[in-house]
Amino acid sequence: MTFTERFVALGDSFTEGVGDEDPTLPNGVRGWADRVAEQLMLADTGWGYANLAVRGKKIGQVLGEQLEAALALQPTLVTLYAGGNDILRPKVDIDELMAGYDDGVTRLAASGATVVLFTGFDTSKSAVFGRTRGRTAIYNEWVREIADKHGTLLVDYWRLREFQDWRYWAEDRLHMSAAGHTLMAKRVLEVLQADDAITLPELPALETLSRRAAFAADARWARQHLVPWVGRRLRRVSSGDALTAKYPQLTGLHPAR
Fold this sequence. Notes:
By secondary structure, this protein is α/β, with parallel strands linked by helices. 42% of the residues lie in helices and 12% in strands.
């Protein structure tokens, strides 16, 4: 099939869709990018969609493994988010990291495609990941400067304060839930100035936990999610090592629900 418009998504777990689980789909996840593609196709059946994102990838891997493949698909719309996995490493040179990021955005912008970039999320309320907040702030300033330089669109995740509501997050407290991915899809479509038929899900009632119950929940989270995550870092392995892109070639999607 020949597509007149081509949306290609690059990145890591954020764009792959981790946290928005769906065992019927490739890699077992859906995510905001799929949801954006579905809405674009509802408005215009000429859209094709490829998602090259793979969980666990750092900026160098995203650009090294996904950039050429994305350009070969001759995209008219590209989204890029990468850097979160670099920021969480024990040591990182943000300035050096963003020089490579800038080179990648230069090539994407030169293709003539509409490019959408993302800042990182403000982790100020996270007891664990909040320690990297300063790194993320520096990263975000680089992203904003690069977006201005190349005239790209920007989804300023840091400033989307509704995501400070942890009901939009998965049990691992690192990835958005289905509700969070749905909300993010709506915010991306707003930046694209595209209409959508997305209905945001109703959030569960906020729980007020006793100190003892909160401690037990934190201990359970650490055992089930934090310890395995740290273990992978120590072994220098990634949850995405055995995975490939969900949609490496352009395809058509229809809203799942």
